[in-house]
Amino acid sequence: MTALASGGRGTGAPSGAPSGAPADAPSGARAAAPSAPAPAPAPAPDPRRWLVLAVASAAQFLAVLDVVAVTIAFPAIGQDFAPAPASALSWVLNGYTVVLAALLVPAGRLADEAGRRRCFLTGMVLFGLASAACGLAPTLPLLIAARVVQGAAAAVLIPTSLSLALPAFPARERATAVGVWTAVSAIGASSGPVLGGLLAASDWRLIFLINVPVVLLAVGSGVRLLPRAVRGPRQALDLPGTALVLVCVGGLVTAFVQAPEWGYTAPGTLAVLAAGVLAGVLGVRHARRAAQPVVSPALFRTPGFTAATLGLLSYFVAYGLMMLAASLLFTDVWHYSVRTAGLALAPWPLTVLVVSAFSGRVVAVLGGRGTAVAGALCFVAAALWWLAPAGDGSGGTHYAVRFLPGLILAGLGTSLYQPVMFAAAGALPAAQLSLGSGVLMVSRQAGTALGVAVLVAVIGGQRHPGLGALRGGWAVAAVMSVGAVAAALALGRGGRRAVDGRAS
Asked: Is 454 in contact with 391 (CB distance < 8 Å)?
């Protein structure tokens, strides 16, 4: 019975004998007997998949770079629009950050239904036009308005970039693909201070205008390369759910980014925070009752997805905190120039770039969960290493011994943890890839904003914090990194199948 169940090959039958012919039948009879259908060969990988990833990564790079590089240009922008108050000037950055975070989920849902290729190309064109408007803005209100439009365009680009790239890769290559995508994101974030400083030294408007030729190249390549994916099923627009998502994410991120300026216990901060929390509670209740909610609860029943969402939130709180604390150490404690500080941070993204090329092999050996745990532990080790620096000197030995190993550990953590967690989107149904990517990106944006707000609170709002205050920030980062370890452990067997590419 076992032999029959496994294809009918008895111990005495030749390997080619079908189940319906005896082993000693004449060869002609065996040839005439019906044979079991051969398994369908696996489809060949898309030969253009790496070019598709390059186009998707270009969008990711621009969207992340424009968060960091603009921060460096603040003094120059303030001089051009003097005597603009700091509260108004801050919205050149915060308008982009808040709108980007608030629109990620609705934009991901829209892309899944309307077509990712169309939404990606539309978002890229809009991003280029908004960048040109930022670079040419004659007044501060027009610059802020253009930044808001730029943030909305980035909200369309980011989730669709990953959801366009992932399906082009076979399961065995997805960890490597997400590793490359993650490396590009990390390079965009870490090179922002250097590139922003170089461009702002000439003219801060170049930070925006340099996007235009990159957008033109990406749009031209995208029209030729990006797959025309089948649209998802048409569903009724969930206006109440969409509004609650916007208020929840927008309120929470606004509270995080404005708390250092408004005050952590100021009525405005508490009111915006309360509105975000209330909208979140009502949004969960609505999602459980609505027939077609903008964010279906089933999304979080996908193996590994909830753990990835919470893990990325914890990780990016530590990431945002550690990145800002390192910059403050270089500029305010060791008195590096902005350009030198940017170069001092370079080993972090360079490590990510090198290790990400091998992330697929690491996942193949350790599994998704093991790789994520190793990455999170590297982040814990980096924060603990930076707790050790002594003295306020700025010598090369001080940097090489006291700080450089932590940067390399942080790079290892980034290159191992992020690909596994972001690859959890690949386990979602095809019709929810962009939406799931948007949810994971909300964790990134909200976590980074919260990390910056936490560090500012820890250092007591000091404009030039000392080493002791920064150590407190790294202690918080270590704790949040432990939370990322716990989330990686919670991936379990289901999450491991998802990130290894063995889930459908």
From this structure: no
